Amino acid sequence: MNARDDVFVPELLARRAAGVRAATLALLDGLTPEDCMLQSMPEASPVKWHVGHVAWFFETFVLEPWQPGFRPFDPAFRELFNSYYVGVGERHPRGQRGLLSRPSLDRVMAYQQSVLERLLEWMDDAAPPQALALVELGLHHEQQHQELIATDLKHHFWHNPLLPGWRPAPAGEAMADPGPAAFRRYDAGLADLGHAGDGFAFDNEAPRHRVWVEAFELAQRPVSNAEYLAFIEDGGYGRPDLWLSDGWDARVRGGWDMPLYWMRDDGRWACHTAAGPLPMDPAEPVCHLSYYEADAYARWAGARLPTEQEWERAAAQAMAEGASLPADGDFAESGLLHPARLRADAPGFLGGVWEWTQSAYLPYPGFRPAAGAVGEYNGKFMINQMVLRGGSCATPRSHIRHTYRNFFAPGSRWQYAGLRLAR
Amino acid sequence: MNARDDVFVPELLARRAAGVRAATLALLDGLTPEDCMLQSMPEASPVKWHVGHVAWFFETFVLEPWQPGFRPFDPAFRELFNSYYVGVGERHPRGQRGLLSRPSLDRVMAYQQSVLERLLEWMDDAAPPQALALVELGLHHEQQHQELIATDLKHHFWHNPLLPGWRPAPAGEAMADPGPAAFRRYDAGLADLGHAGDGFAFDNEAPRHRVWVEAFELAQRPVSNAEYLAFIEDGGYGRPDLWLSDGWDARVRGGWDMPLYWMRDDGRWACHTAAGPLPMDPAEPVCHLSYYEADAYARWAGARLPTEQEWERAAAQAMAEGASLPADGDFAESGLLHPARLRADAPGFLGGVWEWTQSAYLPYPGFRPAAGAVGEYNGKFMINQMVLRGGSCATPRSHIRHTYRNFFAPGSRWQYAGLRLAR
Amino acid sequence: MNARDDVFVPELLARRAAGVRAATLALLDGLTPEDCMLQSMPEASPVKWHVGHVAWFFETFVLEPWQPGFRPFDPAFRELFNSYYVGVGERHPRGQRGLLSRPSLDRVMAYQQSVLERLLEWMDDAAPPQALALVELGLHHEQQHQELIATDLKHHFWHNPLLPGWRPAPAGEAMADPGPAAFRRYDAGLADLGHAGDGFAFDNEAPRHRVWVEAFELAQRPVSNAEYLAFIEDGGYGRPDLWLSDGWDARVRGGWDMPLYWMRDDGRWACHTAAGPLPMDPAEPVCHLSYYEADAYARWAGARLPTEQEWERAAAQAMAEGASLPADGDFAESGLLHPARLRADAPGFLGGVWEWTQSAYLPYPGFRPAAGAVGEYNGKFMINQMVLRGGSCATPRSHIRHTYRNFFAPGSRWQYAGLRLAR
Amino acid sequence: MNARDDVFVPELLARRAAGVRAATLALLDGLTPEDCMLQSMPEASPVKWHVGHVAWFFETFVLEPWQPGFRPFDPAFRELFNSYYVGVGERHPRGQRGLLSRPSLDRVMAYQQSVLERLLEWMDDAAPPQALALVELGLHHEQQHQELIATDLKHHFWHNPLLPGWRPAPAGEAMADPGPAAFRRYDAGLADLGHAGDGFAFDNEAPRHRVWVEAFELAQRPVSNAEYLAFIEDGGYGRPDLWLSDGWDARVRGGWDMPLYWMRDDGRWACHTAAGPLPMDPAEPVCHLSYYEADAYARWAGARLPTEQEWERAAAQAMAEGASLPADGDFAESGLLHPARLRADAPGFLGGVWEWTQSAYLPYPGFRPAAGAVGEYNGKFMINQMVLRGGSCATPRSHIRHTYRNFFAPGSRWQYAGLRLAR
User: Fold this and answer.
1) pLDDT on residue B124
2) D86·A241 Cβ contact <8 A
3) For chain A, which has fewer Cβ within 10 Å, the N-terminal or C-terminal residue?
4) Do A384 and D86 lie within an 8 Å CB cutoff?
5) Taking 50 as the threshold, does the pLDDT of residue B1 lie above it?
6) Where does the record place the DinB-like domain (chains A, B, C, D) (predicted)?
7) Which of C28, C31, C32, C34 to mutate to test the interface with D (most CBs of D within 10 A)?
């Protein structure tokens, strides 16, 4: 994160902390302790673990070093809820988080409450700015885990033949066809990209830096289910010439012939969603694609994925033109955890589905990770991953920015990840 | 099982069914729904799945074909709780049983209760003997799962760094050293082995058949922890000449240098038990050994494992001499799920720990599996496994016989399996 | 092997040694140095390695301890050509034997010649009987590797799409259909089995011991390709009820739907053989089956595999009735490395194809491995394998006996292994 | 490759083709047919396969479409020697190339000679420019395989405990210590990068495009063995904070604690080289590093890897200043296949060791793969790989350029890959 040591108002920060936690806990509505223990793959953690981990972050990085007379809630939690911070010590093996029936969900709920109370109490005091900066980081960290709670749970439930849903189904009539995507042209030129200004940003969004961007065209909306279905029906999953070599191998190995969570039954298409199985809606943006599928689709469509520089330039321009960006997308606050239908008249860049870019996740020129264990937050993952931009229907509205860099391995499919065409 | 169509008294059988179920449910005392969902490896199922499966057996093999107007509790359970009966249809993948947060434990409890009630109600009617034989099989099947509930749960909790215990610790002072094991000699001769008589037995214990058994000597008690510790301290885990070739490979691959559940800390030995971590008691029988370890130990001790024929002959002789066999061991009814200390004056053959034999699990001459899907019960597993005899502290007293054949792959360690020396 | 210290005539043994080696080298006719380096799987060694290893056995177990002034041909070979004798020291990893382009085949040929010459020279002296016993063991060891040279090479060439052959095709017209197999009945009774008499036998054939064998019937010839084809065409590979549980898993994992080396092209069946691809001959015995396939076939045919005791009893009786056993089969000396067609009038028990029995490979009562490193020859493999009896078309005639116990893992398919029905 | 249809002089191209082939065959000096069949891992092919494949390229992409009356040398070779061109048809599995004892090396030599003769004969005719462009591509393709022949063979021989060498050892005294590396500063600015001009370049070096490069400093020579040893001795392989997360996992999984081919014996360091084992020379550039090790070293040294843009800018500037670039490095023509010692007075950018950059291998803006099957040459590998620049001691001098983009997965270690520091 950026060092903005002088700008924190403890009261405001405390209010935000309480609000973020309330949003985290709201995600557990309708879930049982058994649901909260599910772990369907090493990359997807149990809901209970996420809850413990977001509290752990505050206890470990804020309370332990800064609170006078600090005493841990439970010394064993230091290891149990450490994700990957080698600087903090041992970690419980990632793939075995689903084997922690103890501590129970009740006890983890008591833990997060205790940490939050101690945090709020301590923030009344003369908390030093560098500690408050860690609180702010912790709040954004917690919002990231809110998104993971949703995407991981969807993956866990996918492994239950009953296909449980835990959210209401999207309401409303199917919209009219959004029509073909318009492409907008952007001229070549120098651009300053990366985070600027006073607001919070992760360290990987900095420093702001100059890039030369060649002229390009970018679609004004993501690819729809209907468009992706045409790729399927045209045999796109059976044509190696459309795929990257590693992508084709992943496709064969995984037996992929449709997006994750899609099902075909008697010629009808359906999707596993947060509301359980629903008919596939052609007007929604396609999602749960790997990079390989997004890339193959783009090649099939005679286009390509944008670079993150192109994407950010276009999004910055939209903002400069007065678009109230977060407003035009759909976010976690809707409670649906499902992307809204595409509309022709709202070419926003944020929300709905993450958009794969053709940029590898690498440091910006002059990048420096934060000092100490929180320096492990982003930098050590800068290899073998591709950048996604824009946020999704599972991202909190206050969490996303047009400079935000999300990143996943190219074979990952369990995020709400789609694509937007460039050429 | 044997066909004894004429001997069932429905009232007695119903009383037994209720008693067996009560014993099953007693095993859940102190467990949370989260505990009951744990699955630490594909071979070890969640407690909740075991409970659903024992009910499923009665619903599928008794109620569905025999109860007039049968209606399933939930049609989805037919697949969810099928273990390996291909004749019944599809099965939920074994390694993913821990991903079934739904149905909840509450609902599975309602399921087992519904099945039991319908079963008891139906048994009041003029139930045909061949159906009652399936009820009896189902009761023994349920008792097998009682043992698995205990051994699986111990394995699940072993993967939690908190090492939870869920049973009281064994009471009492450490007994005097049991002293060196006495060996008893048995002369060569023909013997009739396998199940005889009216009582229940599994199909794999039949038919009774004749074998020639050479003269042999057999220890009058299993090997103790103290004796096994001498093997460890003599470097037994580092000497390939003591091990079978496959055993040595398994040892290296698994990093084995002590029995499963043993821990060494600062030179002191402890064990993970049903009561949580306890100091290792030298007077207890060693257990949680693979066949490979039992075999290597026997070779180190200048002895060997007995064959199942030798074992059964000796046990039969003890019975003929008036030993009240089940009385002298320790069984699941103690509630401890931990083997009692060895005593010099009680050379029983049943209870305490299972004893690996050097016999492969193969059909007896003239073996015929039962007709229909229950024919899959035993026969199709007669490969790549070794026979264990005698029962353990997790076996119900009424479940074990001296003709009982248990079987596990030679690398399995999570059962209460020890050994007795022969020569 | 048995200890028969007083029976060796060095001159005769030397003549046999030269003859066995000549037979080994004859197997290399038509092979290039490149062919001799192939290794298609860890279990199948390169021809060159086999040649070096049989020489290594004599150099290590005979010359090194017994020859005055012994000097190794090349000190590095002690490790390179050690198969699995932990007592001898380190071994080159089994799966990497195909990576030894050096030593070249020329040098390995020089090695084997040097060892043989030194061995023959030393045997002129007053060689002690216990050393000569090791020579005899080494000759039988070399004959075992002759068979492996053939079966391994067949497997190696199977991985070359050109399917090279290196032996002449069997001559002659297709025989008349052998007709249905006759079954012969054997009464129940005590039998003395295992090796007896003065001739050589491996340690695992001893000691001779008594067994009770129940009455049984045994087919008078192995199962034919035609009979096995009926199993295939009846859907035998698609019916899990016919298979052992592990066997079904192996079938699915391996994609098995016909014997190894069979091919189906346009409805016609062919086999990869030592003469390259040939049409499948219905009158030949089926071979290259795993135990699982043999067992499933027997179940489908309403029969079962014999135990090794039944097999040996029947073979012994045939001998007692005057059958000149080795004469009626087909062996390696034919040079074809392909089983002859079955005949109705020659119910021999040796040669043609190995026959899977339903007996696990375990020690006979009273078994003792030989002292020293050669004690690793057999005993340490007595787990997870099934016994095969009878020898094959790749077995030297002088190597086989009716007490001979071959053993392979139940999933192995690259040996000439078929079956004979019992009931 | 670029389309330069009008610039080919068939006579000159034919002379080059003969010369390139002579260089390929010279790499086989001292190798046996057995050596030429080795395959130590799927990524490293046998020498024989490389020879067949470079001929296959000409036969498939030039002779087959362009030569009147074309007849293949052997129809089976079309599949056997296809590497990854899906557009051409089936391919023999990559990991099984070492199982092709047939065709023999002799026959593959006849194949390459036949293809070359037919190619040269055909080029006398009025060969169309677009076909000649494919010949030129084939020559550069063959030079790439010359490097792979060297690096793959080194890896194959590493798996032979005899550690064969096949090239003379570097001569000469150890040079004086090259002294600390000087860093040169480059100012920020726009730069035009990528291939320009008339010479040959691969499609992935185009199009020439503009980039903004921030100011940076670059070391004037690669990192030496002595410098890397200091990293080892400082515990660099044991400090996760220095490593990328994936890199640390790879290190643990592979047991890496020194560069590939290094050995430590009694405190002395040695390396497996093309001349067999040699003492480690501190003045040589470190090589056989993965990206992960190069990245960790740079972090330890308080620096970083350069981007490929920085590297190319610096190399271009050196050229503009009059450096005769290929002259100052060391290349395959020396016949040593070993990097020369570093000198303080020769800050060249080409030859010696490849240099990892921190750039992912991705398309340049406006990249278009060639049409047809040769379009699979580069583009489909643009994922999960990092760019290396500069060429190595195994690269032919005429093959390398300062715009050349090599690429390997970050865990690859068998290339002559080192690093140069930036900051």
Assistant:
1) 77
2) yes
3) C
4) no
5) no
6) 20-149
7) C34
Q: What is the 3-state secondary structure (H, E, C) of chain B?
A: CCCCCCCCCHHHHHHHHHHHHHHHHHCCCCCCCCHHHCCCECCECCHHHHHHHHHHHHHHHHHHHHCCCCCCCCCCHHHHCCCCCHHHCCCCCHHHHHHCCCCCHHHHHHHHHHHHHHHHHHHHCCCCHHHHHHHHHHHHHHHHHHHHHHHHHHHHHHCCCCCCCCCCCCCCCCCCCCCCCCEEEECCEEEEECCCCCCCCCHHHCCCEEEEECCEEEECCCCEHHHHHHHHHCCHHHCHHHCCHHHHHHHHHHCCCCCCCEEEECCEEEEEEECEEEECCCCCECCCCCHHHHHHHHHHCCCECCCHHHHHHHHHHHHHCCCCHHHHCCCHHHCCCCCCCCCCCCCCCCCCCEEEEEEECCCCCCCCCCCCHHHHCCHHHCCCCEEEECCCCCCCHHHCCCCCCEEECCCCCCCCEECCCEC
Chains interfacing with B (3 or more CB pairs < 8 Å): A, C
**B381-420 confidence digits (pLDDT tens):** 999 999 999 999 999 999 999 999 999 999 999 999 999 9
What SS3 string covers chain D?
CCCCCCCCCHHHHHHHHHHHHHHHHHCCCCCCCCHHHCCCECCECCHHHHHHHHHHHHHHHHHHHHCCCCCCCCCCHHHHCCCCCHHHCCCCCHHHHHHCCCCCHHHHHHHHHHHHHHHHHHHHCCCCHHHHHHHHHHHHHHHHHHHHHHHHHHHHHHCCCCCCCCCCCCCCCCCCCCCCCCEEEECCEEEEECCCCCCCCCHHHCCCEEEEECCEEEECCCCEHHHHHHHHHCCHHHCHHHCCHHHHHHHHHHCCCCCCCEEEECCEEEEEEECEEEECCCCCECCCCCHHHHHHHHHHCCCECCCHHHHHHHHHHHHHCCCCHHHHCCCHHHCCCCCCCCCCCCCCCCCCCEEEEEEECCCCCCCCCCCCHHHHCCHHHCCCCEEEECCCCCCCHHHCCCCCCEEECCCCCCCCEECCCEC
**pLDDT tens sequence across C258-279:** 999 999 988 899 999 999 999 9
Are A212 and D214 within 8 A, CB to CB? no
Q: Is the pLDDT of residue A62 over 90?
A: yes
Closest CB from D76, D105, D164 relative to C161:
D76
CA atoms within 13 A on the CB side of A380: 22
In 3-state terms, what secondary structure has residue A218? strand
pTM over 0.90: yes
Which residues lie across from C212 on neighbouring strands? C190
User: What proportion of chain D, given as a percentage, has pLDDT over 90?
Assistant: 81
Q: C265 by DSSP, 3-state: which?
A: strand
Residue type, B415: Q
- Is D touching B (3+ C-beta pairs, cut-off 8 A)? no
Mutation target to probe the A interface, by most A beta carbons within 10 A, among D245, D292, D358 is: D245
* Band of pLDDT at residue A5, cut at 50, 70 and 90: very low
User: How close A211 gets to chain D, by Cα (Å)?
Assistant: 5
Q: How far is B17 from chain C (nearest CA, A)?
A: 30
Distance in Å, alpha carbon of C106 to nearest chain D alpha carbon: 11
Chain D residue numbers with beta carbons less than 8 Å from the beta carbon of C99 are 38, 40, 156, 159-160
CA distances in angstroms from D296 to A83, B311, D149, D227, D292, listed in the order given: 22, 61, 29, 13, 6
Q: What is the mean pLDDT of residues D405-422?
A: 98
CA distance C186 to C214: 8
